[in-house]
Specification:
The complex is a heterodimer. By secondary structure, chain A is α/β, with parallel strands linked by helices. Chain A contains five helices and twelve strands. In chain A, about 15% of the residues lie in helices and about 25% in strands. Chain B is about 20% helix and about 25% strand. Chain B is built from six helices and eleven strands. The longest helix of chain B is centred in the middle third of the chain and has 12 residues. Chain B starts with 7 loop residues before the first helix and ends in an 18-residue tail after the last strand. Classes of the chains: A alpha/beta, B alpha/beta. The interface between A and B is large, with 54 and 56 residues.
């Protein structure tokens, strides 16, 4: 059985180590916070916060306290606030150990596309281009194929890029792949997923 | 040096001109200069360019100036959540320059710091890099981005003293600091103007040197995405 959203998030959480400062994207990556367990992880929100806490209790929402997805959140005892220039200085400066992001397409060279589909409404890249260019490690979490069954793990991205050669690891419903010299390397298969199934669903070159 | 004005309209008197570049603070609807945006709408100033991370929603924030077609161009990183924006953009009435969020923040910071350009890795190999100078440093490719020198900055803070020292609250600080610094003139709206000496000098987020005019007023502070959890989940 391929992994579901929560299992993918749980697998992504295994990538995080004690003491890391981490930025989580919107969607499945947000769920990763539920699986960090006892690890000492500090979440960054690029609108200007380190130490992002959970959603507030009803009635305790604060309009001055939101995350990068514009959702109301809370602070923790470790929290610090700063302005947007400082926030992206720490991102560009490599101080954030990892970003876990969703994607529309990833390719065998580590190129990532997750902000724009030509011909559809373009909302903007937000902080995604800065994150993938700046953080220590970029981990993509996404479904292996789109709703038509086509592979999202490609030889070459077809959509406008968010970053070139930026992805380190891809976690999908079928398993885990690393971007290595010459292509992608299978690191792990989801329970019950065969290597053949992984290869068939992957357009990118798989190397040993 | 009198910086305190009675209201937003008076604070913008003699400052607004058609076609000007305005840097605005705020992220989404959080920490936006809502009173000054209302006053700009009333002023009828035309053909404005806004450097602002977002464009508000249809009836709040910069969105209200889109309804009256006072905006010619937006320099932003993300413009979802705004139907009128999309309509004007797709019909060609509104220009849009996408900047990666960190590049936009740094362009403002640089402008305010007297730095006309800087190199960044953000956007290399993407459409953002097209037409920009590329340069290698230690084997890595970077692109040049230009500082933003705005005619006017409008920002929202939590508290000010009469000298313009500002403090912000939580994540409402966001773009307000870099935006404030990059304007030839900066007008700040705050929730409370406090007596000189009552703000801790060690805790000032933006020194008053950057702030020319201040108003105090009531803020709606609208929430864009109200997300909560139940007590029993805790």
């Amino acid at each position: 059985m391929p992994w579901d959203r929560n299992q993918m998030a749980a697998r992504a959480a295994e990538e995080l180590e004690d003491g890391m400062y981490v930025n989580l994207g919107i969607g499945i990556p947000t769920l990763v916070a539920n699986y960090v367990g006892d690890k000492d992880i500090t979440l960054q929100s690029e609108n200007g916060m380190l130490g992002m806490g959970p959603f507030p209790f009803e009635g305790e929402e604060d309009p001055d306290l939101i995350n990068a997805g514009k959702q109301t959140i809370t602070e923790l005892s470790r929290t610090s606030y700063f302005d947007s220039a400082t926030s992206f200085a720490m991102i560009r400066g490599g101080k954030i150990a990892a970003a876990i992001l969703g994607a529309m397409e990833v390719d065998e060279k580590g190129d990532l596309a997750n902000w724009m589909i030509p011909g559809k409404l373009v909302k903007g890249m937000g902080g995604a281009m800065d994150l993938v260019a700046g953080v220590g490690r970029v981990i993509v979490v996404m479904d292996h194929t789109n709703k038509h069954g086509d592979s999202k793990v490609l030889t070459e991205c077809t959509l406008p890029l968010t970053g070139k050669g930026v992805v380190d690891r891809i976690i999908t419903n079928l398993g885990v792949l690393d971007v290595v010299e010459g292509g992608l390397k299978i690191v792990e298969l989801a329970d019950g997923v065969s290597e053949d199934e992984m290869r068939v669903a992957t357009q990118a070159k798989i190397v040993d | 040096m009198k910086k305190i004005y009675a209201n937003a309209t008076e604070a913008l008197d003699g400052v607004l001109t058609d076609g000007m570049l305005i840097a605005a603070g705020g992220f989404g609807l959080c920490g936006i200069p809502e009173l000054l945006l209302d006053a700009i709408k009333e002023s009828g100033a035309q053909d404005l360019t806004f450097a602002s991370n977002n464009a508000g929603v249809d009836d709040f924030g910069i969105g209200i100036l889109l309804q009256t077609k006072q905006v010619k161009k937006m320099i932003s990183s993300y413009v979802g959540e705004n139907a009128e924006f999309m309509r004007q953009y797709l019909s060609g009435e509104l220009e849009l320059e996408f900047n990666p969020q960190g590049t936009l923040a740094e362009r403002m910071r640089a402008g305010g710091a007297g730095i006309p350009g800087f190199y960044t890795k953000t956007g290399v190999g993407t459409v953002i890099a097209e037409g920009k100078e590329h340069k290698e440093f230690k084997g890595e490719t970077y692109i040049m981005e230009e500082g933003i020198f705005a005619d006017l900055a409008i920002v929202k803070a939590w508290k000010a003293d009469d000298t313009g020292n500002l403090i912000f609250r939580k994540t409402a600080r966001n773009f307000n600091v870099p935006a404030a610094t990059c304007g030839k003139i900066c007008v700040a709206e705050v929730e409370e103007i406090v007596p000189r000496g009552s703000l801790d000098p060690d805790a000032i987020h933006l020194p008053g040197i950057y702030v020319n005019r201040i108003i105090q007023g009531d803020h709606e502070k609208r929430i864009e995405q109200r997300t909560t959890r139940k007590k029993e989940d805790a």
